[in-house]
Amino acid sequence: MAPEELFxxxxxxxxxxxxxxITLVESTRQLDREHARQxxxxxAHAAAPGVRMGITGIPGVGKSSLIDTxxxxxxxxxxxxxxxxxxxxxxxxxxxxxxxxxRMERLSHHPDAFIRPSPTGGTLGGVARRTRETIxxxxxxxxxxxLVETVGVGxxxxxxxxxxxxNVLLMIAGAGDELQGIKxxxxxxxxxxVFTKVDGENAARARLAAAEWGQALxxxxxxxxxxxxxxxxxxxxxxxxxxELVERLETLAHEERESGRLDHRRRQQDLHWLEQMIDExxxxxxxxxxxxxxxxxxxxxxxxAGRREAAGAAAELLDRFLPRP
Length: 325
Ligand SMILES: Nc1nc2c(ncn2[C@@H]2O[C@H](COP(=O)(O)OP(=O)(O)OP(=O)(O)O)[C@@H](O)[C@H]2O)c(=O)[nH]1
Ligand SMILES: [Mg+2]
Hints:
11% strand; binds guanosine-5'-triphosphate; binds magnesium ion
């Protein structure tokens, strides 16, 4: 199907067309990539103003369960909800969000919700780049609340910060900060810190932890927005705190948009992606150059065997790829 035709369908809210468009964006085939570029270009100009929310936290903290409850609340408010994932490790589990559909029982059956697993394979930056384009397609298809689930270990949360308008960091009381991979960067990019599973015997512990974290967060340096992260308590099981969470997210999104910060943030993100795609494109062209694989392999062998210095070998490959002016 021609990109224009596919676009027309996805624009009209055709789920199958949206699915096909995303598959194009995730494809590595040359022709698909060309079509994907056209689609993304069309989508970028068509997207309705929506809100992109990053949901981060260690494995098992309760991201998918909370997204299910949160998503239902957004649907009840008349929004259309898309759930995406940035999970470069999902190849391992065969697309974790797929398994997660059981954790998003209600959303996955709702006609106004769309759930898509993380693209598999490639670098984290590549996975996130494809998720960014998927966001644009979803928005063009009428989804105005985008929830991006990311495992908050390693670098994923920093990539998701380049995709989202607002970030929610999920925490669980009792798991050490160390274990939760709480780094300064992630705390600084969180708009809301949400303690999950605040039910049963965990509830009292969560309240205590939330109070402690409240004091710690107040000490963080002021951010561009002038706000420090707020702490909320939720339970996906009982639904407690979820309406408040949605209310806060909506208010924050409104404030960010009105102040112009949201627009500025997205432009900065676009710059990041420009850089990212130049890097990615260079690497691809480098790898695809005729004879490059064999030449590279030979030089790698030389470097491994200690016959060549890495710098010289790299220069030889690069000169072959792009002669110096
Ligand atoms: N008691 C209680 N259990 C919860 C709650 N939310 C999630 N759980 C349980 O915690 C486990 C992990 O939940 P998920 O929603 O899959 O967590 P996740 O963060 O998406 O996990 P990954 O995608 O694997 O990183 C499941 O067994 C859930 O049933 C909650 O609010 N209360
Ligand atoms: Mg999950």
